[in-house]
Structures are given as structure tokens and as C-alpha cells.
Write a structure and sequence with these properties.
The longest helix has 15 residues. The protein is globular and about 75 Å long. It has 2 domains: 172 residues, 3-Layer(aba) Sandwich (Glutaconate Coenzyme A-transferase); 240 residues, 3-Layer(aba) Sandwich (Glutaconate Coenzyme A-transferase). About 1% of the residues have low confidence. The chain contains 13 helices and 25 strands. The protein has 438 residues and is α/β, with parallel strands linked by helices. The strands form 7 sheets. Strands 4-3-2-1-5-7-10 form a 7-stranded parallel sheet, sandwiched between helices.
Length: 438
């Protein structure tokens, strides 16, 4: 039969979809925004079921199960720590999937019984789009034994590998959800704030490290995401882009020709991402069916070999804390988990291996209204090290640039003390002497 008849036969309600999930099963939501109506219907069955394992890579909707008392019904695992689940993470009501250094080799480390995803209505050929967020959705669909897709007419269509055929989905639930409007939150789902004045200074220093023809990656973070609109690429030309997402301003710079990928070693002339976000509705509309933008599976995007194949690859990532040895901590401080490494490790490795490549880590010099230095002599106990000191290249604060590549421990310490906040430099210098000198 034709795809239209097949699609019609597979249409069910959100409640019917939720009824097909049973106790003891593992339910996996695909990355990006969750299937909203199905998630609500599943949560509404809390009195009828128990011991459901739920994997949600990047929580955006609050279905209630992050609150106390739901643990025996829904055993939740998340990857990205967002505002939606931060309290539950802090209280250890959910587990954390830390990801892997080689995402192209691994699906979620759990058996999947039911996969829940979100797609656009099918086109004239029966293909649905995954919208503005691909990640590894297509791979997950191909591997799952039961796939239920929520059909949202607001999802955009893009070029790349961002499609799935009606025949690959077991059931469809039609539900149009606007979700979080573009531009109303960070790429990690946290409320947008006006960037602090220091971000402009950090942006200027990073700009000085970029060259015409570089291919760049920009990671998630409150310091990195505003940088494009604050002049990160001012005065630059022929920039290439290979990154997870599109922070505010990236699409406009593609439109203006600043980012054109004309000197990229691979995928020349194309913007390669796995998700489109942080953009205005006008920018999002410009991406629709635009051959300049290719959404690819995260396994390809974050393959270190692919990243390194770009000459002059520059990774720009945010962190929470750096110690005087150059250890970079981007996932948490002490026992508190604030995020995961995501693609930071892969892009830093790739930039190191790239001909002419550079890795730039940005970090404000202080936290808590200037009371705490983010450059520290020792890491608090329990702090996860995201990047070993051997991988530290450029560290940038609002007070300057530290170049750590090829430096001794004493030289690294001196470089980092020099870009710490002036209020903490004397103390850091004294501690450095105690640590590194007789």
C-alpha cells in the first residue's frame, strides 16, 4: 500500500501510545525536545504502572517525574543537566549518563524497549523531518524494536541526513506543540540573561586568536553562546562552521557571507551541525530547505577523525574552573553535577590534531559576584576533570590569554595567575610557589 494509507493506519492517540508501555520496560526519548503529548500521557499512568526505566538525554519538559516520590514509578536517567532536572540531579533522584569519548561507536548504554521521538508531517514522498534537532535520532529509530513518533507540524525541514520514512515508524501521534520559542533560552534550556560585561572582554581576546579561513566550533555555555553577537567574528572572513549547534548570530553571519566555508578542507561551503538553536524565528525560517545547512548524525559530527580533517580547526568551549596545572573542569564542582562534557573533549582532541588547529577554553575569572576565583590551585574533592592538563592549549578570561601548550608546570602556573582576577593573584602566586618550588 502507499505511504499515505500506511500513515493513516498507524495513527493512534497519545493515551493509546502510553498504554503500550509496560512495567519493567525501558523507554528512550530521543535527544532534543521530548515527545510532549506522549510524555504527559505516560506520566498520567503513574497509578497503573511501576518500575519504568526512562532515558531522557536533554530534559526540556517537566512531566512531574523529577519531583520527590516518583522514583519507584519512573527510574530516570539523563545526559545533559538542564534547568528542568537540576534539582532532581542535586538530590540524586535521577542518574547521569556521562556519555562517551567515541559517540560514533555507542548507542545509549541500555536496552531500549520503546523509543519516543518527534517528527514533522510526511512530505509528498512519505519522509518526515526530525526538525531543528537531529543528534542520533535516525540511528536510534533504526535500532529500536518499537518506535512511536509524535507528529508536530511546527518542525522545520533541513538538508542533510535529517529524515525518516513513514515505513520506519510503528505508530504516529499527531500533536502540534510550539515548545520553547527560538531565542527564549540557552542551548542548554536555561533562561537567557543579559551577558555580563566581562563576556565582551573575553570575546575580544578570543577574536584575536582567530584567523581568516578558520573553521570553528562553539560549545554550549553562558560565556560562549553570546560571543558571536558580541563580535567574535568581527573583521574575519571565509569562516567555516562545524559544531553541534548554532548560537545566536551564527545564521545571520552565514546569510551575510562571513561564514561561507569556502576554505574548509571537507564539506566545503556547508554549515555542518546536528541541531539548529539559539536563533530568531526569522533565522530559523531562513534555514528551512536551505542547502547551505546540513544536519548530520552526531556520530559523524563528533568523530575526532572528521574534526581533525579540517585544517585550522578552532574549538571554543566554556568551562567552570581551571587549576594551576591546567586541568579543565566543565561538568561540576566538588560533588555537584552541573553538566556533562558533551562534545567538548572530542572537539579539543580534533583541534589538537588539526593542521593549524587551536583549542580555546573560556572561563570568567570569578564566580559568586567576585567572591570566588575560578582559577584555583587545587580542585575541590570530587571535581571531575573534563580535560587533562596535557590537553590545555589557550585559556582565556576577561583579563587575558594564557598559552599552556608546551609549557612546564611552573610556566603554566605563571600564565594562569596572570589572567586570574587581580584580587586573587597574590594568593594564587603564593600557593603556586608552595606547590611547585622547593
Amino acid at each position: 500500500m502507499g505511504w499515505k494509507k500506511e500513515y493513516s493506519n498507524k495513527l493512534i492517540s497519545a493515551e493509546d501510545a502510553a498504554s503500550r508501555i509496560h512495567g519493567g520496560q525501558t523507554v528512550v526519548f530521543t535527544p532534543g525536545r521530548e515527545a510532549h503529548a506522549i510524555g504527559l500521557a505516560l506520566a498520567a499512568r503513574a497509578r497503573d504502572i511501576s518500575n519504568i526505566k526512562v532515558y531522557i538525554p536533554s530534559p526540556s519538559y517537566d512531566f512531574g517525574w523529577y519531583d520527590p516520590g516518583w522514583e519507584d514509578i519512573f527510574n530516570i536517567t539523563v545526559s545533559m543537566v538542564t534547568a528542568t532536572c537540576q534539582d532532581a540531579v542535586d538530590a540524586h533522584r535521577v542518574d547521569i549518563d556521562t556519555g562517551t569519548l567515541f559517540p560514533f561507536q555507542e548507542l545509549p548504554n541500555m536496552k531500549t524497549d520503546v523509543l519516543l521521538t518527534e517528527v514533522s508531517p510526511p512530505d509528498e514522498h512519505g519522509f518526515c523531518s526530525f526538525g531543528a534537532s537531529l543528534w542520533n535520532k535516525k540511528t536510534l529509530v533504526e535500532a529500536a524494536p518499537l518506535v512511536i513518533a509524535e507528529v508536530n507540524s511546527h518542525l522545520i525541514r533541513t538538508h542533510g541526513d535529517n529524515f525518516v520514512h513513514v515505513s520506519q515508524i510503528d505508530y504516529f501521534v499527531e500533536h502540534t506543540s510550539s515548545g520553547r520559542a527560538p531565542g527564549t533560552g540557552s542551548l542548554a534550556g536555561r533562561a537567557l540573561k543579559e551577558p555580563e560585561p566581562y563576556v565582551k572582554d573575553i570575546t575580544g581576546f578570543v577574536n584575536s586568536l582567530l584567523r581568516d579561513g578558520d573553521t570553528i566550533q562553539i560549545g554550549v555555555g553562558r560565556t560562549t553562546e553570546p560571543m558571536v553577537k558580541l563580535g567574535l567574528l568581527d573583521g574575519k572572513c571565509d569562516i567555516g562552521y562545524h559544531s553541534e549547534a548554532t548560537p545566536p548570530g551564527i545564521i545571520t553571519l552565514v546569510k551575510e557571507g562571513v561564514i561561507n566555508g569556502s576554505r574548509k578542507t571537507i564539506n566545503r561551503g556547508k554549515v555542518i551541525v546536528t541541531t539548529i538553536g539559539g536563533s530568531t524565528p526569522e533565522e530559523m525560517q531562513w534555514v528551512v530547505d536551505n542547502p547551505l545547512f546540513h544536519l548530520v548524525d552526531v556520530a559523524y559530527l563528533e568523530d575526532i577523525r572528521v574534526i581533525a580533517a579540517h585544517d585550522n580547526m578552532v574549538s571554543i568551549n566554556n568551562t567552570l574552573m581551571v587549576d594551576l596545572y591546567g586541568q579543565v573542569c566543565s561538568e561540576g564542582i566538588g560533588q555537584q553535577i552541573l553538566g556533562i562534557a558533551g562534545g567538548q573533549i572530542m572537539f579539543v582532541y580534533g583541534a589538537w590534531l588539526s593542521k593549524g588547529g587551536r583549542s580555546i577554553i573560556v572561563v570568567p575569572s570569578t564566580a559568586k559576584d567576585g567572591q570566588v576565583s575560578r582559577i584555583v590551585p587545587y580542585l575541590p574533592p570530587g571535581t571531575p576533570v573534563t580535560l587533562q592538563r596535557n590537553l590545555a592549549d589557550y585559556i582565556v578570561t576577561e583579563h587575558g590569554i594564557a598559552r599552556l601548550r608546551g609549557k612546564t608546570l611552573r610556566q603554566r602556573s605563571d600564565e594562569l595567575v596572570a589572567i586570574a582576577h587581580p584580587d586573587f593573584r597574590n594568593e594564587l602566586r603564593q600557593q603556586s610557589c608552595q606547590m611547585l618550588y622547593p
